[in-house]
Predict the structure of NOL1/NOP2/sun family putative RNA methylase.
Amino acid sequence: MKLPSEFVEKMKGILQEEAHRFFATYEEEKASGLRFNPLKIDRNTFLDIVPFALSPVPFCPTGFYYDAHEQPGKHPYHAAGLYYIQEPSAMFVAETLQPNPGEKVLDLCAAPGGKTTQLAAMMKNSGFLLANEIHPKRVKALSENIERLGITNTLVTNETPEKLASRFEGFFDKILVDAPCSGEGMFRKDDEAIRYWSEEHVQQCARQQQHILECAYRMLKEGGILVYSTCTFSPEENEQTIEAFLQKHDDIVLVPIEKAAGIQSGKREWTNTGLETIERTARLWPHHLQGEGHFVTKMKKTGPSPVWKGRYASSNVSKQALRDYRNFEKATLQIEITKTMYAFQHHLFALPEDCPSFDGLKVVRAGLHLGELKKQRFEPNHALALALQRHDVQQSLDIKSDHIECMKYLRGETLSTGEDRGWLLITVDGYPLGWGKEVKGTVKNFYPKGLRINM
Ligand SMILES: C[S@@+](CC[C@H](N)C(=O)[O-])C[C@H]1O[C@@H](n2cnc3c(N)ncnc32)[C@H](O)[C@@H]1O
């Protein structure tokens, strides 16, 4: 691997006697990890059914390492949202924020959704999570991952941090800024990150991080928690970004992060003022643990915040549309969705709890996408299938993960059953994969075209 020479010199300078251990990790395989999804499966059942060898990530109770030769992204359990593939050190970030059910949480730089999906699971799909991504292409991947993992408490937006800050002053209990950075911790898994690296880019990222943190600050309640993280090593984007932020705000204090399992402290020598409390921050290094590397800071806002003056979203759904949905619900489900409903043209959503009004914001997903209102009938969305449990529906068709029928379904082919039951939840080993509509012995395939596999 050819590392940028300026990067090598800089790391040798700051790491000194540790540098050779750090550089030796570039000769080793990258760490591969996945997190099981507690919204769909418990730990023991997951370990019973998962067909790969796994070993636990010591700093994340839902995280596991898998061998590099495995391809968990291709297994039907991935399509069923039973797990999320995530770089192991990244798993520590949401663990540090520790959101609770019922809280109002913001993930400001969220795509592709590794941390969002972890946060939503920790919140047990309740409360309100705003997952924002500034880049229109990346927000699509975020939204798809939220759908696959069966997340229903999340509003996905495609906004700038400034726009959100002007709308949500003093609104959030907890905020995550997983900042865009120079990605030095990505070098083992992404050649692009190596090619893109320059000292100038490091400085540019540091300026941008300051700006994003300022926006986050405005949105935090008094007593609120702000976690800042990067997947880069440079002190300018880590200790120094936090140092500058603390200098601007005397009502922000660093909350100590417990260090275990090889997690190290941030370094006071790497601040401009020798800031002692920076040791409360955490550094995950590839030569101290199995992971690509992260920097994590936990902060608390102790001073007053403006009282949020916005309003909450209310339903805009017509009586007829609601009737069409309820008819579908009665005929197909065993549960009733009681959340506030919202329609974007013909598409019906069940909003997260405590969802603020999103008028004027670029919304990509507003909670659970229930489906589409077609002429006097309702067609369920894939997201609804993935947010259900098998027993939530009246009719389901279970296929085995190692059976050809499962591949046929994921390829978008029809299935033959000989029955005529209408909407069926198609499950793999009991876990929802998508919808099918059974008419006269044949199940029409509603697995989304964009997700179908070709093999
Ligand atoms: C480190 S990545 C986030 C990874 C994500 N949290 C996860 O766990 O999957 C940083 C994200 O910030 C976004 N970003 C870039 N510039 C930004 C800006 N000016 N404001 C907010 N976000 C930005 C990037 O598009 C990128 O998706």
